[in-house]
Design a protein that fits this description.
By secondary structure, this protein is mainly alpha-helical. It is built from 4 helices and 2 strands. The protein has one domain.
């Protein structure tokens, strides 16, 4: 995993920026929590717990919005037969690329 430093935009694979020495610890913690929530949402999808999938994906979006969370929500709606909502979220995922 890499994170772009908000101060100098350097890509980093450590908690301290390699270029400007900024502390990126909070950003790392947020990204780790986001990955944990995505894994929980994926597990809920495997268990067919559609409401939990959507809740966890929304939590992911609160930390950092991205097409991966929107795709997960689209899948949950598609499987539930809510095609209009699935199409809406699919369009959101494609717009975020």
């Amino acid at each position: 995993m890499t994170i772009a430093c908000p101060a100098c935009r350097a890509e980093n694979s450590d908690r301290i920026c390699r270029r400007c020495r900024a502390d990126l610890g909070l950003l790392w913690d947020l990204e780790i929590e986001r990955q944990r929530l995505m894994a929980d949402a994926a597990e809920a999808l495997r268990r067919r717990d559609w409401a939990r999938v959507i809740d966890r994906a929304e939590d992911v979006r609160q930390l950092r919005d991205g097409p991966d969370a929107a795709r997960l929500i689209a899948c949950a709606y598609l499987i539930r037969g809510k095609f209009y909502r699935a199409l809406e979220w699919h369009a959101r995922a494609n717009a975020k690329r």
